[in-house]
Amino acid sequence: MNGALEPGRAGSAVLDLGPAQAGRRIGAIRIAHSHDRSAYGAVVLPVAVIEGRPGPTVLLTGGVHGDEFEGPMILHDLVRKFDPSTLTGRLIVLPVANPLAVAAARRLSPADEGNLARCFPGDRQGTVTKRIAAAITDLLLPHADALVDFHSGGGSLDYFPCTLGRLPADQAARAVVLDLMEAFAAPICAIVTAPAATGTLVAQALERGLPAFATELGGGGGVTAQTLAIGRSGLKRVMAHLKMIGEVPQAGQPGRLVAVRPEHFIRSPGRGAFEPAVGLLGELAEGAAVGQLRDLDRLDREPETIRASASGTVICRRVPAHAEAGDVLVHLGADVTRQELMTL
Questions:
Q1: 265 by DSSP, 3-state: which?
Q2: Is 102 exposed, middle or buried (0-12, 13-18, 19+ CB in 10 A)?
Q3: Could you give the CA distance from residue 7 to residue 253 in angstroms, rounded to a whole number?
Q4: Which PANTHER family does the UniProt record give (predicted)?
Q5: What's the whole-model pTM score?
Q6: Does residue 113 have a pLDDT over 70?
Q7: Burial of 324 per CB tally in 10 Å (0-12, 13-18, 19+)
Q8: Could you tell me which of 41, 59, 139 has the C-alpha nearest to residue 95?
Q9: 312: how many CB neighbours lie within 10 A of its CB?
Q10: What is the per-residue burial (b if ≥16 Cβ within 10 Å, else e) of 240-274?
Q11: How far apart are CA 332 and CA 312, in angstroms?
């Protein structure tokens, strides 16, 4: 375990948690947030620590985006139902990392329009979303040996259930990250080879030398029994891989390994209503029709055919039919070997 997790403070954030001990502790991170309805208000992030015999510490996070409910549901159950006496190591569980956004069922925080998944490592003196990121970075991340960050497509995207990650430059560290992702055994294990997103919690963990990855468990603004089951069993397999629990439940095979390259993101060239020609797991050749973009205000204008900029399998699609210029309509993944990923 990476140091005792005790009550503490970082800037305006306070970790309110009982003293370190075996078993289950439930507390919260409280971040000062003065606003019209509460002069001395606070943003409250419920936190649980489940501690067993000495072993590794895994930080589990959900609700970074407020319209993604799979992670909060999976982790809410884990806190209540997991038996600490069966655990080797420690789980730090943050089911709702962005409570203001979750309460509003929005990707972004209604307090400052901040995207928590682009704010790490945060700023103790910044907007409320940046202070949430700083609190997680300062108060929880230093105690972790690994991170699993639960996401889904939220209200705007639908993913075929997968783990989604990026790989560090160090070869040995790459192998550890890939091992964890494959241990989760989601149907697809997707590696973003040139990630455009900065400021993610996973990126921050990797910069600190921690193995870390995210999930993308469906989306569309709701949850399904299938995606929740994949998340629950995948988490148990990761814990078994780390020797935190003894049994390997439903010891599944590693998922299909795919690379996601910049050309795999197929974007709308303008505003319109998108009619897809392919669904999740559909196969596309480079230049094949992805769908049509319609200008519904121009009855004399033919729909524009959108074509794939690369070949691959559709692992994510846009949910709303309305699209603006630059919106991702689908994104693909191309089959790749572990050896190829290790040499990228």
A1: strand
A2: buried
A3: 40
A4: BLL3975 PROTEIN (PTHR37326)
A5: 0.95
A6: yes
A7: exposed
A8: 59
A9: 25
A10: bbbebbeeeeeebebbbbbbbbeebbbbbeeebeb
A11: 5
C-alpha triplet 147, 151, 152: angle, nearest 5°: 155
DSSP assignment of 38-51, as one string? BTT-EEEEEEEEEE
Q: Is the pLDDT of residue 343 over 90?
A: no
35-60: buried (b, 16+ CB within 10 Å) or exposed (e) per residue? eeeeeeebbebbbbbbbbeebbbbbb
Mean pLDDT of 47-63: 97
Q: How far apart are the first and last CA of the chain?
A: 32
Q: Give CA–CA dist 206/36, Å, rounded.
A: 38
Answer yes or no: are the C-beta atoms of 114 and 100 closer than 8 Å: no
Domains and CATH numbers, the chain: 8-259 (3.40.630.10), 263-342 (2.40.50.100)
List the one residue out of 119, 117, 162 whose CA is nearest residue 255: 162
